[in-house]
Amino acid sequence: MRIDRTQRGWAIASLIMIAVFTAVYVAYAARAPQGPRGGSAFGLTFGVIGFGFMIVAALLGARKRVPTWRIGRAQAWMRGHLWLGLLSLPVILFHGGFHFGGTLTSVLMWLLIITVVSGLFGAELQHYVPRVMTSDVKLETIYDEIGNVRKLLREEADRAVETVCGPIGVGKSASEEVLRAGGLSAARPMSLTGSLGAVAAAAETAVLTEEECAPLRQFYLSEMRPFLEQPRVRGSRLGDADKAHGAFSGLRTLLPPPAQATVEDLEDICDEARQLVRQERLHHLLHGWLLVHIPLSLALIILGAVHAVMALRYS
Amino acid sequence: MARTRTTKKLAQRIDLNYFKRPTSLKRAKFWLSAGLPAIALVWIAWHGFARDSRVYSSGRMSEAHAVLEAQCTACHLQTAGAFSAKASDAACSACHDGPLHHAALTNTAGCATCHTEHRGRVDIVAAKNESCAQCHGDLKTSNGVRSRYAAHIESLQNGHPEFAPLRREANRVRLPTTVRLNHAIHMKPIRRGPNGPNVQLECGNCHRPSAASPDLTYSDGRYVTATVSYGNRSALLPNTGILQPAKPATGRELMAPVKFATACAGCHLLTFDRRLDLGVPHDEPKVVHAFLIAAFSEYIRAHPAELREAVEPGRDLTGRPMAANTRVYTPNQWVASRVYDAEQLLWRKTCAQCHELSIRLAGAAPPVAPWLTVSPEQILTAPIFPEIQLAADPGPRMPHAKFDHDAHRGFACEGCHLKALSSTETSDVLLPGIAACKTCHAPGPEHAESRCFECHTYHDWSKRKEVKPTFMLPALRTGGR
Known about the structure:
The structure holds 2 protein chains of 2 kinds.
Chain A: H1 8-31, H2 41-65, H3 74-95, H4 103-136, H5 146-165, H6 174-180, H7 210-229, H8 241-254, H9 260-288, H10 290-314
Helix pairs in contact in A: 1-3, 2-3, 2-10, 3-4, 4-9, 4-10, 5-6, 5-7, 5-9, 8-9
Chain B: H1 7-12, H2 24-49, H3 89-93, H4 129-136, H5 164-170, H6 183-187, E1 190-193, E2 196-199, H7 203-206, H8 221-225, H9 260-264, H10 285-302, E3 308-311, E4 325-328, H11 331-350, E5 357-358, E6 387-388, H12 413-416, H13 434-440, H14 475-478
Antiparallel strand pairs in B: 1-2, 3-4, 5-6
């Protein structure tokens, strides 16, 4: 969720709340004989408010798991999560008088800090990553399907090469796979209008001689197919758009005209594979912080509850 | 012809059941979300099974109580069946049974009101000013009697009155004094000293803490070793009726009373006759009188020729010298005459330089000068001794505060006791004002401690009760495990 003008109400309410809390804390800290403490009346009040904010923020997860709940709009929950979660940090600092205390309370403070900071990091990414994704990954697909699409791209490339060079000996025939998949894959022809039907239905007949095809076969088997199998491995020049363009330009000069359309398709497939890598990386960036944020926030809620009970017992 | 993509064809690439297959990211999120809270719970449970409650501590304990960190139950007493294990005053009193500040306290809050634990390795005795200001900010008494202390003190900087002796002096109320001392004269260069000319006294020549060896630069060994009949206190009288600090005094806090033997005798000789290179004892008049009789008796036994005394011839009206005359004394007459002369000298000048001497005769209301009361004939048979008031040491000038000169030993005396350089009267109060203290003692990192406890004591530790030992080593260090 982007933090924009639509959140002005939440922002103003949060600013008012933090101003009130700060004023109360300053007055209370100045008059507290032994300084601000979590066990004092004011300290306990801050603790209850802060923990309440945390619980409300954590309930977003439950709300997402049960989207049919009619308790407020999802957007309102998300905004509450953002702003109350952010407010919980200063309120809890007021609760402890900016002391981290003992073992459990220190763990709690660090959990809260990391959770809030990771949340802020995630919120900031929401402003940046989607824009980059739109500009850099024009062929974006569903993240969960990237592996599958990548496999289909590889098969499409196999078939394109086999179309002009004949069988290239990469396991089972691409055409067989296409048939087995029932045509719900990229192996289905995307364009049947090409001169040679580069990505047309699998053609068993080679259009180039063995000698003419040698540069393409060698390039494909030694460089492009390994790249399509493991595109995230560094070192391949096909992973870089400029270098890849240079590689394909060089390849074109070695091939006769009938193979030029195939080379163009292969370059296009490489470009899509590169974009999928980029999408994967951006997706990990956009969602990876949740691997920190969610587990730590759950631990924070559980340990916070333990702290609340035990603190009431000992103070 | 290049590849072409249509939405339909792109859609065909997608497995419609893709969301049923967890991705590595989803799997990691799930396992981390389940694992981390589980680890947290196991951690807490492990401490619970180990009966180790330290994990719940709200902070490290103070320096004084650091040894109890593994022994939560030392303070957090739990009654049977109760959930609460709040630290109780009873636990504090088990070791520190200090009496209350005053009987007329209105605020009898618990120990933790002023002494907060679990705030790290701090000095738990160092209560904040706000603790004291809870009462002293608006002082009231439980019995309704108006307190004689300032009623609105928040801190040293806010509301603390000037020191009482200085307030009294400002109101021209002076304590009676018995010894005359002019600080101004003593602090200027002195032309003649015992060891040569141009003596410049320093404060330390006379003023030393009780526990320090006296400076003997201006002492006289005979007086130092002599015993005296009057009470010769070498240390300050103990303060009675005021709050005593918990720690014993080192003897270096306050200056010892100045003694004649160590501070004065080097210059102020108590000689009494040119025949004898002796000084009278620095003692009561009757001791001095006995000493004089003994000294002169011994002298005349050794020098019987001096019983015949040539009287200085006079001159007649024309200025012509008269014939020399002689007078012959009996030994008793000679001794009486010399004692009389010596006492006249002592009572009139030598002793009177510092002491007030007076004699109260029966029937005579005002005291009379001692040298007018006896004749040489009576001096041996019916002596009358003047009264000399003992030097009255008023004790600590600030009985409700503690001050440690030793902590300030690096500072020149006159920097604070500025008036010592110009004081001419013993009754002058040379105590530095509170402004001098505030020069250094102020809030902030570049200043010395300025909180109330630095000078004042809350509990009267002189009335503490004996404590029954509670803890046993090494079990205390291991929490009983």
